[in-house]
Amino acid sequence: MAVPTRSEVEAIIAERIAADPGFRDTLLADPRAVLSEIIGFDIPESVQVVLHEESLTQIHLTIPASEALSDADLELVAGAGWEFGGGAGNCGGGTCSPN
Question: DSSP 3-state assignment of 34?
Fold first, then answer.
């Protein structure tokens, strides 16, 4: 199974909330578990999962990081093919594996 892109994950989440309003509570309670279930593998503990809920008066935009990746960060993504910004694959460096 291919790993969904970031926009696909966002669409999956929006569709599930529309179909089941209780899913929002599940997502808010444990976003790491929900995201892991959607993408098909566990997210390393070294990766922080932050959830922002928009409102009618507040919009959240995500922009690329401004700082360069450290060697440790590069090891996490080297050869990964999984790029939550839109690629596919799984975490590299032996830190992730498919469920």
Answer: helix
Low-confidence residues of the chain: pLDDT under 70: 1, 68-69, 73-99
Distance CA 36, CA 46 (A): 14
Place of tokens 């809920």: 53
Is residue 77 within 8 A of residue 46, CB to CB? The reply is no
What's the chain's average pLDDT?
A: 77
98's tokens: 């498919």
Domain residue spans of the chain: 6-77
- The packing angle between helices 22-29 and 6-19, to 10°, is 130
pLDDT of residue 22: 95
